[in-house]
From TrEMBL:
Cofactor(s) this protein requires: Mn(2+)
Gene Ontology MF terms: agmatinase activity; metal ion binding
Gene3D superfamilies: Ureohydrolase domain
Annotated cofactor note: Binds 2 manganese ions per subunit.
First-tier enzyme category under EC: hydrolase
GO terms under biological process: putrescine biosynthetic process from arginine, via agmatine; spermidine biosynthetic process
Reaction(s) catalysed by this chain's protein: agmatine + H2O = urea + putrescine
Homology family: Belongs to the arginase family. Agmatinase subfamily.
Record carries keyword Cell inner membrane: no
Binding, Mn(2+): 112, 135, 137, 139, 216, 218
This protein's UniProt keywords: Hydrolase, Manganese, Metal-binding, Polyamine biosynthesis, Putrescine biosynthesis, Spermidine biosynthesis
UniProt protein name: Agmatinase
Length: 290
């Protein structure tokens, strides 16, 4: 399947069939090859799409309707099972094509390592890019049990690529002591436990900057999102994450792309995780895609 071909499976609600005139492209990264606890996030993109059918097309948060934004659901990148290195290369190449076509890339994961190749491609286009990272985990390890390609390493890799001073993490409540020390010593911004309030203070400093946003669903407390591979007690509510998305939408930062990762449907028979994720995607489409 070409990256601009219409997806023949289930698509996100109100997705158009017109790639050329779409402002945003939704695409899936069905990879969970390096997870350290529970696999299954490779099924996240499809389930988020399926859950979206239950959404209202109007958002009272943004006071906008999905008919007001044009987006194309390109389906999932056909990643080779178990091959992390090749999968990363394929994701990076895919994003380069989307960015070169002038599209807003909106990725559905998949484990969090998938954000690393996306940022590599985005950084090639926008050398001064900043990252907003919303997550329970620091993801600042250099390796995990000897593996440098791990879902616990993407933010460290991104810090080394774009500079730690351009990385802003929110909601962090889990990680090694060394990860928190690295955040403190390197000059990156890390807000522990909370998202909306620290984000409100930081966003004015990103005015006019090109910013990529990555959201790990496990930033939510497991009471709101049990369907994830590495659930972490003590998280934020769905309401606080919605508030954060609205704050970003109302800021003067230029959001150039985003992803939402780590939805693992098998651990949530109620489907509340996928339902919440689909709502967050709706708000991102309405609030961040210009």
């Amino acid at each position: 399947m070409r990256f601009d071909e219409a997806y023949s499976g289930k698509v996100f609600i109100m997705s158009r069939n017109d790639f050329e005139n779409a402002s945003a492209v939704i695409y899936g990264m069905p990879m969970d090859w390096t997870v350290s606890f529970r696999p299954g996030s490779r099924f996240g993109p499809g389930r988020i799409r399926e859950a979206s059918i239950g959404l209202e097309e109007y958002s009272p948060y943004m006071d906008k309707h999905l008919e007001e934004v044009t987006y194309f659901d390109a389906g999932d990148i056909p990643l080779p099972f178990g091959n992390a290195e090749r999968s990363i290369a394929m994701i990076e190449e895919y994003i380069k094509k989307l960015v070169s076509a002038g599209k807003f890339p909106l990725g559905l994961g998949g484990e969090h390592l998938v954000t690393w190749p996306v940022i590599r491609a985005m950084h090639e286009k926008y050398s001064d890019i900043a990252l907003i990272h919303i997550d329970a985990h620091a993801d600042l390890r250099k390796e995990y049990e000897g593996e440098v390609l791990s879902h616990s390493t993407p933010v460290r890799k991104i810090c080394e690529l774009i500079g730690p001073e351009n990385v802003y993490s929110f909601g962090i409540r889990s990680g090694m002591r060394e990860e928190f020390q690295y955040a403190k010593d390197s000059g990156m911004h890390m807000s522990k436990f909370h998202v909306a309030e620290p984000l409100r203070k930081i966003l004015p400093t990103l005015s006019g900057r090109k910013v990529y946003v990555t959201i790990d669903i496990d930033v939510l407390d497991p009471a709101f999102a049990p369907g994830t591979g590495t659930a972490e007690a003590g998280g934020i509510t769905s309401g606080e994450l919605l508030e954060a998305i609205q704050l970003i939408a109302g800021s003067d930062a230029e959001i150039v792309g985003a992803d939402l990762v780590e939805v693992a449907p098998a651990y949530d028979h109620s489907e509340q995780t996928a339902i919440a994720a689909s709502k967050f995607v709706r708000e991102i489409l309405l609030g961040w895609v210009k």
